[in-house]
Amino acid sequence: MKNILTLSAIAAAFLGWAGMAHAQDTVLDNYTAVSTALAQDNLSAAKSAATTLAEGAKGTALAEHASALVKSDSLATAREHFKAISEEAVKLADGKAGYYVFTCPMVKAEWVQKTKEVQNPYMGKEMLGCGSIKSSSSASVKMGGCCG
After folding, report:
1. Rounded distance, CA 78 to CA 94, Å?
2. Spatial distance between the Cα atoms of 26 and 8, rounded to a whole number of angstroms
3. pLDDT for residue 23 is more than 50
4. Which end of the chain is more exposed for a tag (fewer CB within 10 A), N or C?
């Protein structure tokens, strides 16, 4: 009986951890939707994705910043709020397979992507390829663009 209780406790702890990891992945996926919209200069899509992000990350600093982005009236304002969101997302992505942290020295900010192809959310279509991979869980690759 004692072994069954011990195994049950271990299983519950593992499932709790697995659920938390899945929740972080969902938050990061919602975050990358905001990033993609900004890279495409699509304020409406960025605000919509930020709404989903804020709902999925309730009670966190990330949700607070995402809610501020939703109220943005321009891409420039949205991108400023995105910097604060990205600071939190970089922490979540640290060491997670399949996520890459990029940096743009022109705006002195980082962001997270799921692909290695630079899609700069801060510069949008004007300089989409500007940036380099700062870190990833699988490789330390430098990319080109304006500042690679």
Report:
1. 24
2. 27
3. yes
4. N
